[in-house]
Amino acid sequence: MIEPAIISVRYSDLDVMGHVNNSIYLTYFEMARVHYFGRFLGRKWDWKKDGIILVKNEIEYKKPIFLHDLPQIEVTTSHIGTKSFILDYSVMVKDNLCAIGSSTLVAFDTEKNSTVEIPDSMRAMLESLKKEQ
Q: Number of helices (H) and strands (E), helices first, in the chain?
């Protein structure tokens, strides 16, 4: 199992109430995806040929995150289709669940400008992240 992505909260992430603004969570999800894909697929992965596009995000906010918190985001997979998959996120600060979310992504070849089947090595990575039943 890979270690969760650890996020450094920036002052610019905060809203007038002093907690992380709701829109910033999508950036945190993206950072977590980059963290996981980088660990599993490496830096030499050809994202133009074997890329992904984001088609949907969902977030449920549970508790606020503040400036000096160190959120950790665990990524799991809840669905793997032929061309699309769903990543789920758990955002924790210490032992507190602060948010949960999901992203639906589709395998995409930007050179052909079309969806493609999920590459085998990416599928293996996604399988390894499946939620335990």
A: 2, 6
**Nearest 5 degrees, angle CA 21-CA 26-CA 29?**
125
pLDDT tens-digit map of 52-99: 999 999 999 999 999 999 999 999 999 999 999 999 999 999 999 999
Q: Is the pTM of this model over 0.90?
A: yes
Counted residue by residue, the chain has a size of 133
Distance, in Å, from the CA atom of 86 to the CA atom of 79, rounded to the nearest integer, reads 5
Can you tell me the distance from the alpha carbon of 118 to that of 106, in angstroms, rounded to the nearest whole number? Answer: 8
Can you list the domains of the chain with their CATH numbers?
5-128 (3.10.129.10)
Per the CB < 8 A criterion, the answer to whether 129 and 75 are in contact is yes
Structure tokens at 89: 């996120």
Backbone phi and psi for residue 98, each to the nearest 5 degrees, phi listed first: -100, -30
